TrEMBL record:
Residues 1-25, 86-106 are annotated as: Disordered. Residues 8-19, 86-98 have a biased composition (Basic and acidic residues). This is Uncharacterized protein.
């Protein structure tokens, strides 16, 4: 009498349809030891692989992966070599085409080398010319004085106004000389 719930497991509604529900049970559900053992025995595989066999399988798989990786790397290197050869051939063909158009039979590389030497000669001449002119010396002296003043007056940079004006005038002189040479 007391082992059963006070409410039935099924109830008939006023419109005569069955409404099933479960009564709220206070007692826990217990399973027998043999049922638990039976279920746990079914969940583990019957033919488990021994550890030594599993290690052998893992080693074999790793060897196959390493072999495939080495094969792919070798194939990649051969493709790279082939691409490099094709690019070299294309560059040689392009250079030969430029050689035919180059004056006096100079090769493309020789023409570039000659142009590079000309640029180096011109830049060294400009550097010498720059060092010898009074305008550039004034710019260099003005820059040095301005930097020294700023270092000496870190907290009061407005004290360097006179040096800044001299530097600006020297730069303006160089600019006007440059524009005069460009316009002529």
């Amino acid at each position: 009498m007391g082992a059963q719930g006070s409410k039935p497991d099924a109830e008939v509604s006023p419109d005569h349809r069955d409404q099933s529900f479960f009564a709220n049970r206070q007692s826990p559900v217990n399973f027998s030891e043999s049922l638990i053992n039976h279920l746990s025995a079914q969940s583990t595989p019957a033919a488990a692989v021994p550890a030594s066999r599993q290690q052998a399988l893992d080693a074999h798989i790793q060897q196959r992966i390493a072999a495939e990786l080495a094969r792919l790397r070798h194939e990649e290197q051969s493709v790279r070599d082939e691409i490099e050869r094709a690019l070299e051939k294309e560059n040689l063909d392009r250079e030969r085409g430029a050689d035919a158009a180059a004056p006096k039979g100079l090769s493309h590389s020789a023409t570039l080398f000659k142009d590079l030497e000309d640029l180096e000669r011109r830049s060294s001449a400009l550097r010498r010319e720059r060092a010898e002119t009074d305008d550039w010396r004034r710019v260099d002296v003005g820059k040095d004085e301005l930097v020294k003043c700023f270092r000496d007056n870190k907290t009061t940079p407005l004290n360097c106004r006179e040096q800044a004006e001299r530097f600006k005038q020297a730069v303006a002189g160089i600019e006007s000389a440059f524009f005069a040479t460009v316009n002529n």
